[in-house]
Amino acid sequence: MLTGQQLHRELAQILAGPVLNSGDDPIEVVRAARQIREGAETLMGAAVQQAREAGRTWQEIGEVLGVSRQAAFQRYGKPIDPQTGEALNTSPLPEAVELARAVIDDHAHGRWADITERFDDTMRARLTEEGLAEAWVYLAGLAGAYESHGDTDVVRTGDFTVTNTPLAFEAGDFIARVVFRDDRTIAGLFILSPEEANSNTRSICT
C-alpha cells in the first residue's frame, strides 16, 4: 500500500515528467496529457484503496469524488462473488472507449448495418437497422441535429462493460449507453436523458 507521502510523490511525477519532456510538438503535448490522465487514474485507484483500508466509507469517498457511493464502489471497489468468495472481474474491456465512439460515429453517419453487425444474438433479434434509423430520427425531432460527443465513462458491471458518453444535439443533451460483452459484441444500446442516465432508468432504446 502506498503511503500518503508516496502518493504525493507519484502525483508530482505524473504531472511534471511527461510535460517537461514533451518539447514543443503539439502531438507530444497531447500524448503527455494522455499519460497524465492514465497515471492520475491509477493514482486515484491507489488513493481510494488506501482510504478504504483506513476504514473510510464508500459514502465518504463518493462525496469527495462528487458521485454516489454506488458509483464510487462500481469504479474502484473490489466486489466478491457471494457464491465462490473470489474477487469478481472488475476490469472493463480495454478498448471500450474506442468501441463506444465507433458506435456513436456510425449513428451520426447512418451506418446502421455496421452497428447491427456487432450486436449479440439477443440484440440482433430485438433491434433492426430500420429501428435504429427511426430512433435516431426521433432524437433529431426532439433536439435537432447531432453536434458532438464528450468523454466516455467506462465501468465494469458483472460480465459486461458499460460505457456512457455525453451527446450534444442542437437543442438538447443525451447520454449514449452502450453495453459490451467481453467478445466486443453489443449487448445493450440506449440513448438516455442525463437525468435518466443518473438514475439508471432506461429510456429510448436504439
Which helices and strands occur, and which strands form pairs?
Elements: H1 4-20, H2 26-53, H3 58-65, H4 69-76, H5 96-108, H6 112-116, H7 121-126, H8 129-143, E1 146-149, E2 153-157, E3 160-169, E4 172-180, E5 186-192, H9 194-198, E6 204-205
Antiparallel strand pairs: 1-3, 2-3, 3-4, 4-5, 5-6
Structure description:
There is one protein chain. With 206 residues, this protein is α+β, with helices and mostly antiparallel strands. It folds into two domains: 4-76, no CATH class; 96-205, Nuclear Transport Factor 2, Chain: A. Helix content is 51%, strand content 18%. It is built from nine helices and six strands. Strands 1, 2, 3, 4, 5 and 6 form a six-stranded antiparallel beta sheet that branches. A hairpin with a 2-residue loop joins β2 and β3 (160-169). α1 (4-20) runs antiparallel to α2 and α3 crosses α4. It is globular, with a radius of gyration of 20 Å. Mean pLDDT is 84; it is low at 201-206.
